[in-house]
Every structure is written in structure tokens, then in C-alpha cells.
Write a structure and sequence with these properties.
The complex is a heterodimer of chains A (554) and B (149). Chain A is mostly helical. Chain A is built from 27 helices and one strand. Chain B has 149 residues and is an alpha+beta fold. Classes of the chains: A mainly alpha (554), B alpha+beta (149). Chains A and B meet through helix 3, strand 1, helix 14 and helix 15 of A and helix 2, strand 2 and strand 5 of B.
């Protein structure tokens, strides 16, 4: 049951984290088509009656897909009414993935209509929230859109960097690659870097043969030669594209060429075609020149008509300051970088906080455990001391009984039994389970004041003072001279701690007592015993072997 | 056992061989003539991408632009949805200047595509493209822009 609840919670959490999916299969199909086959998606969406969509999400999604398909198929939108519906909805739901797509389309739409400052704002917002790793086709569309908007705003350097990013994420679609490389070449041409221009144009030429972008590449070469002043080459390339899809752009440059040569009739003819160009600056230039020609020839009607249309062009495209747009982007990037670093900092702080909490909790738990452990040691030590005392008292009473010997045997037997029981109990405290009779220590030493004081200190969890140790050595020295000689041997070089451990083991102090008296854990005491075995007896073995050997010393 | 063939049989075989030898060059000539006829036909029907002289709309490019501006009727549905676009229509200008083999080489929206096809289809005869002074069939691509004012 508990597992089921956890599983349910995880499912809910995952579901709440992932983007919402449309319940309409036609929308899902259009979504899968839109980035690679926008025209097919457009036909599918056109056949769909918007009123049949069941939810607000589906309506917003439908509008987004429709705008994506329209833009993808090469259309532009006269206003933002479609995308605004999606924008409002996704801003409310705060679904980042859809919101990024919406901002991207709004940016493209604004850019197409010449509202470059606003367009850059939307495109940068899309860039800041889009998950680019998971959205390669969208990444290409986004970078291309930012590049084209920058190019239109005369921010050529920025445009170039974004076109290169677009090329890096571009899929294997040859037309897309050629179009992008051609735009990069154009920018290099504008930035007066002919070598880079040629490099990219050559790459275009080796790929463009069967693509629709071939004409654009040819026009670009013609334009390059025109700027270089190579008339014949320019003429060759530009004329070759006059019956192609890039005819209006070619005508614009041919108009310039003949205009510069004073051939007014030809220039005028080409400028009339250039009015249909998709390049705003080319259209404007064509209008200006045609108005000039109409003025010279005294055709006032044509002049008025052209002036009106030129005004419409100016109205469509708001004037932009390249430096302002570049600054806006630099500021936006800096703001984003700072927000990212703040976010990262917050993440690091959170992780550090968690670590500190874990350490504190760990320390508290360890402290609690140690306290409990110490209490256990002290309890054991106290039990041992109590048993030792009772044993000592019982022995003394037995001796007294034997001396007085009034009622004789029954009481003595009872006392003897009691002593036996106590000895068995004392043996239980020892690792080797030996009874005090086999301890190989005289009663006077075992029951001496200093030894009992040491037991007492261990039972209280206190360590022994240097004076206690001194008295202990003084008590042992006359009774166990062999032991003292062994420990004081010049080749042993025992430390105070090692010496104390030896004495305590010899006097049958239990490991918990030794640990308390020398302030170390029982594990450390075990390690010391192993080391002492090698130091004193030059042998390798376990701690118990050392105990046996040291306890045999007299 | 080896038998000599009768003399009359030998002569017959010799005659057949001679006729066949005569026939072979005639067949080859016939085949070559047929190939040449086909290739001449193909040459006559060849569609040029880059003729020496490009086909021209009657009155020149200025008139073509005027024609497009006056003939294109913005599809009302597209106008309602504020859809703008540039449709590429590919066609062949025949030797007599008529327009044939129309197709959309870059579709943008079904409504705009259909209108572009209608406009190109109803264009008057062009002056054909020329190679060495002779009229040739020429392939053209015409971008038709749909822009809302």
C-alpha cells in the first residue's frame, strides 16, 4: 500500500513537470510535421475547424501551430492576432516550452513587419527560456530569426555570430544549409571580408546545384562582383538569375549597375522589378531612384504614385539605431548571465545548506551514540567494580570466619559458594573467561587501594591522574619485578600510554575500563595491544596473544 | 562419310550471305536516321534555362509588374487572416510565347498558390526566349508577392 502511494506521488510529480499534451490527434500530428514539413502541417490545420477543439489549451496550441506552419512555409502575417491568443494562454500557464515557441513566432512576425526592436526583445526572451538541447529544429529557426533581425537592423557582427550558431545546429537539409551559408557569405561581403565571403560561397556552390537556394547564391556572387567593380562578372551572374526565384533581387542590383553607368531606360526597367524584392532597403532604393527618374521626365502622376508607395514602406519599417539594438542585446545577455549565476549561486548555497544540515545531524547523532556508548562502558565498568568489591569483601569475610570459626562449616561453605559465584561472574568480564584464581596476581595487589581507585575512576567515566599512575607503578614494582623489568627494557621504547595499557592488562582491567582510563576507544586499545606484541615480544599475532604473554609476566 | 553438297545449294547459300551483308549497312543507316530524328526532335523541344535572350513580357518588366499588380486579387480568406507570402510559379514560355507546364515551385499557402497559378495562367503571350536568333522554349520562375497594404 505504502509503495502504491509513493508510486502515485511520483507519477503525479512527473506529470506536473512535463509539458501539457494535446488530446487532439490532428494537432499532435500537425505538431510532428510543422518543423520539417510546414506546408503539410498548414494544409492539415486549414482543414481543421477551430470550433471543434475541446479545450482552451487546444485553441492556443492550434493558433501556435498555425503561425509556426505559416511562417515555416514562407508566409508573413500582417498582424499578431493569432499568436497573441497563444501568448496570453501560455503566459498564464507558464509552460516554458510552449511559451518559448510562442515568443519565437511573435518575434518572427514582428521582424517580418520591420518592428525590429520589439522583435529582438521577443526573440531574446525565447532564447533565454528555450531548451535548445531538446529542440534542434527550433534552435535553428530561433538563431536564424535572431540573425536575420540583426542583419535587418544593420548589426552585422551579431547577425554573423547567430548565423554561425544556426549553421552549427542545422540539420542535414541541404537547402537550409545553403541558405544559411549564403547569408553568412552576404554578411562577410557587407563586413568587407572577401576571403571569408569566397570560402562560404564556394561551400554554397558545391552544395546548391539542386536546391532552390541556387539562384540566391548566384545573385549574391553578382552583388559581390558589383561591389568589387567587376562589371562583366556582375552582369553575367545577375542576368543568369533573371528568370529565377531571385529575379527581383537580381533586378535591383542590375538597376544599380545600369544606374551607375547612366543607362536610365534599363535601370528604370530593373528598378520597377526591384520594387517587389523581399529586401526592404532594396525596395526603398528602387522607389527613390524611380521617383527621381519620374521627376526628371516630368511624369508627376507616376511620381505621386511612387511617393505614396515609398511612404507606405517607411511606415511599415520603423527606424532603428543599430547601436541601440546591439546594446539592448548585450544588456539582455548580461542580465541573463547574472540571473544564471544567481541561480547557480542559490543552487550551491542550497547544496551547502543541505550538507551542513547533514553534518550537524550526523554530529548530533554521533554525539548521542557516543554518550550512550560511554554510559554503557561506565555501566560495565561499574558492574565490574561492584563485583570486584563484593568479591574482595566476601574473601575478607571468609578469612574472618575461618579465623573466628564459631559456628563452623555451614556459613563458610555458604561464603565459599558466594565467592565461587562472584569469581565466575568476574571471569565473564574477561575476554579469556579466566577466574581470579588463575589471574596470577597476588590478592594484596589486586585489592590494593590504588587498583580499586583506578577501577572506581573507570566506573565514573573519569581518567586517571599522573599521580594515580605513579602510585600504580609503585604498587606493582615490588610484586611484579619481572614485568617492570620487561617493560623498562631499553630496546622496548614504550610510550606512557603503552606502558599504562600493559599495566592495566596485567592487572586484569577489562577493555572498557582501559579505554576510559587512557581516553581511547576499545578499538584503539586493541591496535595498541597488537603493536605492543611486536614491540615487546617481537612477535606477530593478535591482541589476545599479547594479553596471554603479558599476564604470564611476574 | 563426307558428302559434297549439290552445286545449286552452294549458290543459294552464297546468295543469302550476300543479301545479308548488303542489308546490314542499310539497317544501321535506318537506325542512325531514327536516332538523329529523335535527337532533332529533342533539340527542337529542348527547354532552355539560360537562352541567349530571355523571354519578355509584352511591354517589358515594367508592364509585367503592372500586370501583376492589377491582376492579383488578394484571396479574401487570406486577407481576413492577414496572411502574406511569396509564391514561386514555374512555367515554360513556348516558342510561340504561350505559357505552359505551370507548377508551383515553392508553395506558401493553398489560397495564395491558387491565385498565383490563376494569374500566371491568364497572362498574355510572351516574346519567346532566343538562341542564335531562333525562338526556343524557356523555363521561367516568377515570384508573385502577396502583400497587404
Amino acid at each position: 500500500m505504502k509503495r502504491l502511494i509513493i508510486l502515485f506521488c511520483i507519477t503525479i510529480a512527473i506529470a506536473s513537470c512535463t509539458s501539457q499534451q494535446s488530446g487532439d490527434s490532428r494537432l499532435r500530428m500537425a505538431d510532428s510535421l510543422v518543423s520539417l514539413h510546414p506546408y503539410n502541417a498548414l494544409i492539415l490545420l486549414d482543414s481543421l475547424d477551430e470550433r471543434t477543439l475541446s479545450s482552451t489549451f487546444d485553441s492556443a496550441f492550434y493558433n501556435l501551430l498555425l503561425v509556426e506552419a505559416l511562417h515555416g512555409a514562407g508566409n508573413t502575417l500582417g498582424n499578431d492576432s493569432l499568436i497573441l491568443i497563444s501568448e496570453r494562454y501560455f503566459e498564464q500557464t507558464k509552460d516554458k516550452s510552449f511559451l518559448a515557441r510562442t515568443y519565437l513566432q511573435r518575434g518572427i512576425s514582428l521582424s517580418d513587419r520591420g518592428k525590429l526592436t520589439k522583435a529582438i526583445g521577443y526573440l531574446k526572451k525565447a532564447e533565454s527560456i528555450i531548451d535548445l538541447k531538446a529542440n534542434h529544429p527550433i534552435a535553428y529557426i530561433l538563431y536564424s530569426a535572431i540573425a536575420r533581425t540583426n542583419a535587418a537592423a544593420q548589426c552585422k557582427g551579431l547577425a554573423l555570430s547567430y548565423e554561425k550558431r544556426a549553421l552549427a545546429v542545422c540539420d542535414t537539409n541541404v537547402t537550409r544549409r545553403v541558405e544559411t551559408m549564403n547569408r553568412i557569405a552576404t554578411l562577410y561581403g557587407d563586413l568587407d571580408q572577401p576571403d571569408s565571403f569566397k570560402t562560404y560561397i564556394n561551400q554554397c556552390l558545391s552544395n546548391s546545384r539542386y536546391t532552390i537556394a541556387q539562384a540566391d547564391v548566384m545573385v549574391n556572387i553578382g552583388r559581390f562582383y558589383l561591389r568589387q567593380g567587376q562589371r562583366e562578372m556582375a552582369l553575367h551572374y545577375l542576368r543568369a538569375t533573371l528568370n529565377s526565384e531571385a529575379m527581383y533581387e537580381a533586378a535591383g542590383y542590375l538597376g544599380e549597375l545600369f544606374d551607375s553607368e547612366g543607362d536610365r531606360t534599363k535601370a528604370q526597367d530593373y528598378y520597377f522589378m526591384a520594387m517587389e524584392s523581399c529586401l526592404p532597403e532594396m525596395r526603398t532604393h528602387a522607389y527613390q531612384r524611380l521617383i527621381h527618374y519620374a521627376e526628371i521626365s516630368g511624369n508627376h502622376r507616376l511620381m505621386t504614385d511612387l511617393s505614396l508607395r515609398l511612404n507606405q514602406e517607411y511606415e511599415k519599417y520603423q527606424a532603428v539605431e543599430p547601436a541601440e539594438i546591439a546594446k539592448y542585446q548585450a544588456d539582455f545577455d548580461a542580465q541573463q548571465a547574472s540571473a544564471r549565476s544567481h541561480k547557480q549561486l542559490a543552487k550551491v548555497a542550497f547544496i551547502i545548506g543541505i550538507l551542513v544540515m547533514v553534518i550537524v545531524v550526523g554530529l548530533l547523532l554521533h554525539r548521542r551514540k557516543m554518550r550512550r556508548y560511554r554510559r554503557l562502558l561506565e555501566q560495565t565498568n561499574a558492574d565490574y567494580l561492584d563485583t570486584l568489591k563484593r568479591h574482595e569483601t566476601a574473601q575478607r569475610e571468609l578469612t574472618n570466619l575461618r579465623e573466628v570459626s564459631i559456628d563452623g562449616d555451614a556459613v563458610i561453605a555458604q561464603k565459599t559458594a558466594e565467592i565461587d559465584a562472584l569469581q565466575q561472574r568476574l571471569a565473564q568480564f574477561q575476554e579469556d573467561k579466566m577466574s581470579p584464581t588463575d589471574w596470577n596476581i597476588g590478592d594484596s595487589l589486586l585489592n590494593s587501594d590504588v587498583v580499586f581507585r583506578m577501577h572506581d575512576l573507570a566506573a565514573q567515566g573519569r581518567t586517571a591522574m599522573p599521580t594515580d599512575w605513579q602510585q600504580l607503578v609503585e604498587a606493582i614494582a615490588p610484586q611484579l619485578p619481572g614485568l617492570m623489568a620487561k617493560l623498562s627494557a631499553p630496546d622496548c621504547h614504550l610510550s606512557d600510554r603503552e606502558m599504562r595499557v600493559c599495566l592495566l592488562i596485567r592487572l586484569r582491567f577489562i577493555p572498557s575500563e582501559i579505554a576510559t582510563l587512557v581516553i581511547a576507544s576499545p578499538q584503539v586499545i586493541t591496535n595498541i595491544r597488537v603493536r605492543l606484541l611486536e614491540k615487546i615480544y617481537r612477535r606477530k599475532g593478535g591482541a589476545r596473544m599479547f594479553d596471554e604473554l603479558i599476564r604470564a609476566e611476574k | 562419310m563426307y558428302h559434297l553438297k549439290p552445286k545449286s545449294m552452294k549458290t543459294k547459300h552464297l546468295l543469302i550471305a550476300m543479301v545479308m551483308m548488303l542489308m546490314m549497312p542499310i539497317t544501321t543507316i535506318q537506325a542512325e536516321t531514327a536516332t538523329a530524328t529523335v535527337s532533332l526532335q529533342q533539340k527542337k523541344n529542348k527547354v532552355y534555362d539560360q537562352p541567349e535572350v530571355l523571354p519578355e513580357f509584352p511591354g517589358g518588366m515594367q508592364k509585367l509588374m503592372e500586370y501583376l499588380r492589377t491582376s492579383v486579387k488578394y484571396p479574401s480568406e487570406a486577407q481576413k487572416k492577414s496572411i502574406q507570402g511569396r509564391v514561386l510559379v514555374q512555367f515554360i514560355v513556348e516558342k510561340n510565347g504561350t505559357i505552359s507546364h505551370l507548377e508551383i515551385s515553392q508553395a506558401t499557402h493553398p489560397l495564395l498558390d491558387n491565385e498565383a497559378l490563376r494569374v500566371v495562367e491568364s497572362m498574355p503571350k510572351w516574346t519567346p526566349g532566343k538562341v542564335k536568333g531562333k525562338a526556343v522554349r524557356t523555363s521561367m520562375t516568377l515570384p508573385i508577392s502577396f502583400k497587404l497594404q
